Amino acid sequence: MNRHWNSYLNQRLSRRELLRVSSTGFGALALAGLLAEEVRAEEMPGAESVTGGAPSPLAVKPPHFAPKAKRVIFLFMHGGPSQVDTFDYKPLLIRDHGKPLPFQRPKVVSSETFNLLKSPWAFRQYGQSGMWVSDLFPELAQRVDDLCFIKSMYGSNSRHGGALLELHTGSDTFVRPSMGSWITYGLGSENQSMPGFITICPTQSHGGANNFGSAFLPAPYAGTPIGAVGVKARDAKIPYIANTETPREIQRMELDYVQQMNRQQLAATGPDAALDGRIESFELAFRMQSEAPGLQDISREPAATQKLYGIDDRVTEDFGRQCLMARRLSEKGVRFVQVSHTYKWDQHSDLLRDHAQNAREVDKPISGLLQDLKARGLLKDTLVIWGGEFGRTPTAQGSDGRDHNPEAFTFWLAGGGVKPGLQYGSTDDYGYYAVENKVHFHDLHATILHLLGMDHTRLTYRYAGRDFRLTDVHGNVVNGILA
Amino acid sequence: MRNTFAAPKGMRPPHRERRLPRRRDSLELARIGLIDHLMFTLPGATSMADWAAVCRLVGVTRLVRRTASNAVPACDNVLTMPMRGNPPAPLLKCVRLIALALLSSALCPAADDGPEFFETHVRPLLVRQCLPCHSSPTAPMGGLRLDSREGVLKGGSRGPAIVAGKPAESILLRAVRQTESLRMPPSGKLKDADIAILTQWIEMGVPWGVEARVETGAEARQQTAAAKPKFWAFVPPRDPQKPPLKNTAWVQSPIDAFILAGLEAKGLNPAPPADKRTLIRRATFDLTGLPPTPREVEEFLEDQRPGAFARVIDRLLAAPRYGERWGRHWLDVARYADSNGLDENLVYRHAWQYRDYVIQAFNKDKPYDQFVKEQLAGDLLPRPADDATQFERWTATGFLSLGAKMLAEDDPAKMEMDIVDEQLDTTTRAFMGLTVACARCHDHKFDPIPQADYYSLAGIFKSSKTMEDFKVVATWHEYVLAPAPEREKLKALLDRIAAMNKEIASISKAEDDRLAGEARRKTGAYLLAAGDTLRFEQVHLKPVAAESKTSSKPPANALIRTAASFDRGNAPRPLEKGEAKTPANTGRAGRGAPVLFAEYDIAVPTAGDYQLDLLEEETGSGTVDVWINGVLEKRGAGPVTNREASPDAGGWSAAGIFQLVAGKNTIRLEHKSRFPYFESLLIAPSPLPPGTETPRSPVQVARQYGVNPSFLDQWVEYMRTSKGAPHSVLYAMLAWSAQPSMAGGALSGWTSPAAERFRDYHPKTREELAGRYQELFLEAERKSESDRKSDAALAVFHEESFAKAGPFRAPSDARQYYPQAVQSQLTQLEKERKALEDSKPDLPKAMGVSEGDKIADLAINLRGSHWTLGEVVPRRFLRVMAGESQTPIDATQSGRLQLAEWLTEPNHPLTSRVMANRIWRWHFGRGIVPSVDNFGRLGEMPTNQPLLDWLALRFVEQKWSIKQMHRLIMLSSTYQMSSAYDGHAAEIDPENTLLWRANRQRLEAESIRDSVMAVSGDLDLTMGGTLFTFKDRAYVADTSKRGGVDYARNRRAVYLPVVRSNMYEMFQAFDLPDPSTPNGDRNSTVIAPQALFAMNGDIVLKHTRSMAEGLLARTGVDDSARILEAYERALARPPAAKEVDGALTFIAGIEKAMEAHEKDAAKRHVFAWQSFCKALMASNEFIYVN
Hints:
The complex is a heterodimer. By secondary structure, chain A is α/β, with parallel strands linked by helices. Chain A has helices spanning 5-12, 15-21, 31-40, 91-95, 138-141, 160-169, 179-187, 248-269, 273-296, 303-308, 314-331, 351-375, 441-451, and strands spanning 71-77, 123-126, 131-134, 147-154, 197-200, 224-226, 336-341, 382-387, 391-396, 402-405, 409-415, 422-424, 426-427, 434-436, 439-440, 460-463, 466-469. In chain A, a hairpin with a 5-residue loop joins strand 9 (391-396) and strand 10 (402-405). In chain A, helix 8 (248-269) packs antiparallel against helix 9. By secondary structure, chain B is an alpha+beta fold. In chain B, the strands form 7 sheets. Chain B has a 5-stranded antiparallel β-sheet. In chain B, a hairpin with a 7-residue loop joins strand 16 (858-861) and strand 17 (869-873). Chain B is globular, with a radius of gyration of 39 Å. Chain B starts with 22 loop residues before the first helix and ends with a strand. At the A-B interface, helix 1, helix 2, helix 3, helix 6 and helix 8 of A face helix 1, helix 2, helix 3, helix 4 and helix 23 of B.
């Protein structure tokens, strides 16, 4: 697999060594990072000292090949947004509204549905690309020329739990590392004062932390949650990040005292990378404690920016904050940021009311995020991904609802390395099955890794006697969407 | 040379075999060569440290130091070599040169790339596209097998599939190009890129991957029998020769001899013995997970007689703390948790019984063979005389049951096989260190485990009962842990309750039938009412206040009341936000319980329609019923179940339009269980334009038509789901709402037999049409079954009317419509039933496994899919060890007991070795086989096999006693070495593989937490039981329960609940392994979140304060004595004089600096001492054990 010589360095360190010694943090300018810089830039790196003795697990690692995107923001629509009510325009579904579905339903369904149900929302074409968007997303519709739609997504599991795990980890059967963990494992973090993978207000059901966990990958690659579902974005914080009892300068005094004890001990024991590393880790924690709350604090963003994300409106405020926080984290080099619109898109009934409400909550914030990223020049190397764990049936559940449908749904990507204004793949006449250029979650994973400069077949980790991949034995890069 | 480059675990390329020359090795050699070359050609002023830096930059870990005087290569591990920052600039240039040279060489295909090319490109393609049909050992399609090189070259009925090196002559290639009659694969043409790969592969001469070619059936037998010499792990251990040694004085135990042999071979010496303080701290943490108390240290120091340390060991082994520590080690292997995790995270309420069983087993020194047997087959062991033993054994089988499961899998067969797989995986890894689960889909790629063997073992687990059912959100099996008479009493009680249920059900059914019968007389009215309701549903009322919430200003004529301002009511005041915080109705359950309500007196000037809006309403527990002036006008929605409420977007929402009278009106909001939060309510004249029909709630519509509101709800739902369906009997009614006439082809699309009765029927009004429907329903009801048989139209009317899930089924709230006398009778019966239920003893339970209802051998699931079955294989054990001729497992038994007996045979090659190695790992921080859970070919080789085998044999000899193993190990010189650094040894053996000194180990998560509490004197040593407050099978991680687990308890960490998918933050930060898979080798990372915990963790802050207060409360001692005590408690040593001074200065400094923040001098004093205690517990010395 890994003929890539740079990542070799990584292999040379036994896992034990890597972990035991490990990162002092993210703090030390690590060897691998140094080397990567060395290869990329013609200039010699400065003479910073290589302290920690071994690379931090979050040190920047070079990709397998030149990446198109450096970081990812994943906008996760939990519950399963309906493709036929959002982006997958189906004139025949309108025409045949109320008629029976003229073909076989899948073998395994989560419950019974009835006849075809047209979308209650009108579709219109937008932008240069003339792409169809329903009236659910008036703001996002203005951005279609920046988006790359995959209309032919499909998965294998018709239940939320299984589908969430499949989307996030590639497996709906076992506990596996999540894609954010794989990416951070593969590339490290660009900000050595912050975790490489952050998930804002993640769900606690349907696999819970397994959706951002590192499973058998080392702990530093696990997603760091900021808040949890049900916590307002303004109240979300990283575990143990603050201490209300101890004033900052007092804490610094305490830290200096501890470090003095630690250094005295180290002098007595002789070289010990772990002891050394722990000294570094305290300094890093202290920096993180200073940096993280600032990154989360959006109050200093100009009013115009806040407005762009809809933070001035109660409907869009919460998701707007999440999106703005995501931009701030991305900008500061956090490799993978997930934003969750939690378990709202599950309209077995009340499609009309609830899909409208959901769309209203996210439309402006997402549109604002895209505009903001673009204005800052970040969109060109940031990959933004939008989607849910499955789509919904074009057939009705009740008069105003749709069931789960893993056979077809829409994702869109924007930014780093994807063709903007493109529509890739398609579904049948009613949007029940993906038919042309089908893209499985494994293919999506392979493509995301590819855009980040990694070959999904080479990004492996040896565990329990075999080499694991995010894509297991599956996955093809969707070349058709690459810019 | 090659051995020194053995790839570390976790970082190895896929599907590669160790014995072959690997590209990576050649790369490393190339790098070394380049560096070597540069060393000779560059100016000699460069130091070794600089060279070390170069090596590290290009990824070479060992440096070949060649000097003129020394031609023999000496290996230096550059990772431990001193470094001075980056090498000088000229050297860095070299680095880039090397890098580029290597990069280019790495990108050119090389001769030895064949297997890699195959594994990377070809095998996945074959697996995906071809093997589904071309791999069966018995009947591959066309006789062609593409799962081995031989098969490919031999071909099938059409001759060889491939001619090596000749793409044009290869049938396979012609087939995949699909230009001729043979077109493969049938599912569609391969991508061009894939065809190119196959072409290249054939051109390359059909290289194949390297793998243990063990196939099913005959080939496997041949292979397993002929494999010689067998891989070490499959050969039972034999007593090793005692190695010849120089330094015999050091050898206290044979262990030392084996260790010393390794050291002497490299010219190394063992570290000097650890001092007594270090030794007792090490042993105490090691065996109990807690620090020694100052008194224990003192006693050991004073004990100058021989055997002092042995006495310490015996004391520690006898303490119940021992089981808590070592039981926890086993719980890692048993992937213990108190919740299911995965998709539906349900509480395993009784899992703790297994946890306590494990702790007790260690404390009792239960022989390991017995321990294994109980966990796999406790229920099948000969019946013990006493109940306690029986319960213990049932509980032990929890080992098999408490894994993570997908409980909401739509395919029950897949769910069952996934559970079987999880059990098989855990069992084989825990006891044998083998990854048998790899063979679920195909023969094991590296170990001689054919797929057939997997299904032999799987048959054993599938014949056992873990689950009660495989429904979506499935139920697991539990044992009742009570004596037989009590279990029988319980059963009798349950039977009586069941009988009462039956009686209640039969009375209810009679009433329900009566209600339905009455309702059927009004079918026409239901049709009309349901139609109206559906029409009203389409009107989405907007709140009176504008949509944009922030700028919204309610109109001037609106009346607003805050929620808490109600005039009468028993709702909480103020209402609390957050559904979890809203108190539940404390009234009695069942009928007659007081509802929660709030009444608002509202005066309006004129009678008419008014809209009611609520602000920031929380809807998770359901919405309120609305009563106007004593009449129920709207029924609230039910609670949102099993669903996370996310932060409400909030704002106003419309509750409905109601008629008010002029003057005072009473608006009553009511809820049966939890009164939902809202901020305010608003009343304003109906905003609908004049002339618009006012939408009415279903209750109001029901009143208008004189029908039962509960049946109406069902009619609405029924009509909704059959909307527009041509096969529905209601088609005419529905068509009428769209086009009020039966003229023309209005009914032409109607496919139901009911259409027959509407031919040439032309009603004038909707009411007339509804009447017609009613007649037909009644006619169908009157007619006999045989009449209906001959009249298809009547048959469908009857069917709809009497359908189990139809509109006239008994409503869930039907009771309220029963006659009063019947209601009282039912209430009485329910009271009696409740009394019975209350008398039901809360008998302890345990998760566990028993024999299954169906005992059977299993067919191989081809490619792991239960949709495609292969040959049936007998239940038996791994043939590589158990051989071909095994005693067949009785057809009436699952085989778990036999499996357990086979595993614990004294000469089983793996069981004793794996456990002896685990024990070694937990003492030393690294196993003799470092990959403790994998003894297969892809695991690591033992670093000292004679030692491992010697230990394994002693383990069996000493009756599988784990405590004896501790004595054996801890009384060796090896264990008692210090961790002193030795520069020379560090260069030769940087990872201390040979054990030239003791490993310095970081405390594990539980020990850190427990020690903070122990040192501060707060630790509660109560044993056993659960701290979970949830009911069995409750959802553990929905919003309302977030944070519902109290981790701040002072009990030992082993007793804290382990919630899968939602692990305690502190555990997560300190490397508690994922509790979904077995793991006997915890990581020991150093990451920033750990430091954050030490700085800010709630536990740290709480207990350091209490420690400070305790120290300050000492009377008659000075501050130096307090510092001495703190040091002894935390670090098991007195401070040096300099340290005492430093501490005093520090405390004074903090106290001074706090003046700016804290006015109270006494508080400043405590705070400063707390800072000192925090520092002690944050120190490396506290958290690392020497």
